[in-house]
Write a structure and sequence with these properties.
Elements (H helix, E strand, L loop, with lengths): L1 E3 L3 E3 L1 H11 L16 H4 L5 E2 L23 H4 L4 H12 L6 H17 L3 H14 L4 H13 L3 H14 L4 H13 L3 H14 L4 H13 L3 H14 L4 H13 L3 H14 L4 H14 L6 H10 L3 H6 L5
Antiparallel strand pairs: 1-2, 2-3
Helix pairs in contact: 1-7, 4-5, 5-6, 6-7, 7-8, 8-9, 9-10, 10-11, 11-12, 12-13, 13-14, 13-15, 14-15, 15-16
Length: 316
Amino acid sequence: MHVFGRKAVVSRAAIVAATLALSAGLGSAVFAEDPQAPADQARPQVLVPAKPADSADPAAASPGSAASVEDNPCFTGKGSIKEVLDSCAAFLASGSKDTDKLIAAHGNRAIGLAATGDFDAALAEMNEAVALDPKQPNSYFMRAAAYEAKKDYDKSIADLDEAIRLDASRGDFYMLRGVVFGQKGDFDRAITELDQKVKLDPNSTQGYSKRAEFFRQKKDFDRAAADYSEVIKLEPDKPKGYIDRGWIYVLKNDLDRAMDDFTAALKIHENDASALVGVGVVKSRKGKPTDGSREIQQAITLEPDIINQIKKLGVE
């Protein structure tokens, strides 16, 4: 667990998930676009202050009050995204003097607003959070993600620089900074940032996977394959590492190893479209051009845009 606000606790995964809604560079979206979608299904864990409600706080008088962490949708995430947003707004207007919960409420409104695509409003919430406690690194981290979503990369990097100055032990900070440098086309600097992410979080697959993407874009296929091998070591029962490494082997024209990886992925998930295309591509390259057409057509039926996705990897 890690600190949000002075003593507000939220898991590392939740913080990263929060940035996913703000930063497309970290992966697929984690929020539903429908603001009425149930919050517990459409968004990650909210930021929950760990400090018990202060009985002296005028907004914490009862379990059902705006400040109650136990049953307030602002802090539990239960209900629709709109209900979470409204509950956080009510809490912020309640007169609470609890800085921890105020920062968490602004952060949760930012997460919810990002879910609806309103990054300007999300950014405004994080500005408020930073103003409440300029020494809180997670606030800069989340604001950096909002800047990245708006493609304001220099401001995003500036906020990440400050977050890292305040707390250099957080691998997520380096990962997001690496993503931003990657968006700017500086793959060498992006890889340097991901080196630090991997060093700090050696058991996290995210760092290896993202660094491998940058190695692939630099056509350093050996190092990309090595990073995906680390992903497989950490998650041998998930297909993605095998599939990603399989496509690296295709780019290296190491077709036997590619087939082994795609086959391994299909043993885990028999209808994975990317793995099916991989099998089809390897068959067509090792045999006749029409070999593998069955697998490719099956993949397109499952996922119509799969061929375009594969082409983005540099596969022709």
